[in-house]
């Protein structure tokens, strides 16, 4: 399953001229939603998740949708159009006709004030009228066959409350839990890996005792470890094994091993994310289809959609540059839709897949960036991306450096006009040596000097 179009109307800040109508590449790859704080990146990601999950997932989430509809609007709607993979996405009912593009969507309505309890209005939710029955028998089925989708919020913890994001009387919508609840964790993925370890030991014991039993856990655990070991962790660290105590890591060239849980947030969150994606894919399909990456590593080949909010959270810039390429290489048939404040995450975006969300004060809709801006971000430096209209950063320098650079321009004008005193010349030389600049910055500084000369 892949998303080809997303529409939001009267959902939080997405109303009127800011309503969403995005056409996305209906294929695997790396789609980035970029924008300032409060531009609605998380809201857009959550809305996509709810449309893909359907009414049962929405009801199961213990999330507060009180402010979901735009202020003074009576209804809010989200619609997502998806295309299916005939080999992977099937229907629970044989009579359903497969369509080229399936519409999935939900609508929230404010109840009349007379029916609200003590002034608290609980929104009424229902599928859009245009949603075909295929949705109920496909991605919205109680136990979907394929139609893989998972979502992750910025707090991707290995410890915490498992299943905290669902109510007790419904099945836990685990694939989307952390996208809506900060206290939900990915600890279940580690428990799954530990369970594989125990089952592997049981299979080995049965084999030693001469019992004929198909080995399932051992090969599956080997695939998981091969994936985690294939350059996922930076700085020459590597996941070595999985035991009853969890994941163990070592540094290249050293024999000592230590638990992953003792490492920094960056290591833990990335390992937990990848491990959970693998667990969710295996849980949805019942097996892992694997193949080699271009470098000879292990890739998981099943299709689907993975949503990640603030994918750059806890990651050093060197890791931010690599994470998009790593995930695409090891999940080559997954459509990743991520949000980020990092220019390095944006540099991995596919063509027609870098989307700018205007700020809350801008009366514009989210849109795919122009080809010129895309090339500047993807093929330029990190500074080029940060200084572009995608991020709106006015300068890459500190406020102290900016003051000194303005002084440098003033002194440079005097030096070239031969009106600088001896002290000013000395100050100019000191600042020129102190304030080393890139070619792009020097061009801007010279332009500022020329502007003053007019």
Automatic annotation (TrEMBL):
**Entries under Pfam families matching the protein:** AAA_21 (PF13304), AAA_23 (PF13476)
Coiled coil regions in record: none
Which Gene Ontology molecular-function terms are recorded?
ATP binding; ATP hydrolysis activity
Q: Which Gene Ontology BP annotations are present?
A: double-strand break repair
What top-level branch of life does the organism fall under? Bacteria
What sequence ranges are listed for the domain AAA+ ATPase?
Answer: 27-361
In Swiss-Prot or TrEMBL terms, this protein is called AAA family ATPase
The scientific name of the source species is: Streptomyces chartreusis
């Amino acid at each position: 399953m892949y998303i080809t179009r997303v529409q939001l109307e009267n959902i939080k800040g997405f109303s009127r001229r800011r309503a969403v109508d995005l056409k996305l590449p209906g294929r695997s790859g790396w789609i980035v939603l970029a924008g300032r704080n409060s531009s609605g990146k998380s809201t857009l990601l959550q809305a996509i998740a709810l449309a893909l999950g359907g009414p049962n997932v929405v009801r199961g989430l213990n999330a507060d949708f009180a402010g979901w509809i735009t202020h003074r609007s009576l209804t809010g709607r989200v619609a997502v159009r998806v295309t299916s993979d005939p080999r992977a996405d099937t229907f629970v009912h044989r009579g359903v006709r497969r369509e080229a593009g399936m519409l999935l969507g939900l609508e929230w309505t404010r109840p009349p004030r007379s029916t609200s309890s003590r002034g608290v209005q609980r929104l009424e939710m229902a599928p859009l009228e245009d949603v075909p029955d295929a949705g109920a028998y496909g991605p919205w089925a109680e136990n979907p066959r394929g139609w893989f989708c998972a979502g992750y919020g910025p707090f991707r913890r290995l410890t915490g409350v498992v299943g905290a994001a669902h109510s007790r009387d419904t099945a836990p919508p685990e694939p989307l839990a952390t996208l809506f609840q900060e206290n939900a964790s990915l600890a279940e993925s580690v428990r799954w890996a530990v369970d594989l370890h125990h089952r592997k030991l049981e299979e080995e014991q049965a084999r030693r005792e001469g019992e004929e039993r198909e080995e399932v856990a051992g090969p599956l655990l080997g695939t998981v470890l091969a994936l985690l070991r294939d350059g996922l962790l930076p700085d020459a660290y590597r996941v070595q094994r999985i035991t009853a105590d969890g994941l163990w890591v070592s540094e290249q060239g050293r024999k000592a091993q230590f638990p992953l849980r003792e490492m920094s947030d960056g290591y833990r969150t990335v390992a937990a994310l990848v491990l959970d994606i693998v667990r969710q894919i295996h849980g949805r399909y019942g097996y892992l289809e694997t193949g080699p990456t271009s470098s000879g590593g292990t890739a998981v080949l099943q299709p689907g959609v993975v949503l990640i909010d603030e994918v750059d959270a806890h990651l050093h810039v060197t890791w931010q540059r690599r994470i998009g390429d790593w995930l695409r290489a090891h999940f080559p048939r997954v459509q990743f839709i991520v949000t980020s404040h990092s220019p390095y995450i944006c540099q991995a975006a596919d063509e027609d897949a870098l989307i700018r969300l205007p700020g809350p004060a801008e009366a514009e809709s989210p849109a795919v960036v122009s080809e010129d801006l895309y090339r500047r971000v993807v093929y330029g430096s990190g500074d080029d991306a940060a200084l572009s209209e995608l991020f709106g950063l006015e300068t890459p320098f500190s406020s102290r450096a900016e003051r000194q650079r303005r002084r440098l321009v003033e002194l440079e004008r005097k030096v070239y006009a031969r009106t600088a005193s001896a002290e000013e010349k000395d100050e100019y030389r000191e600042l020129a040596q102190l304030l080393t600049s890139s070619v792009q910055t020097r061009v801007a500084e010279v332009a500022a000097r020329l502007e003053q000369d007019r």
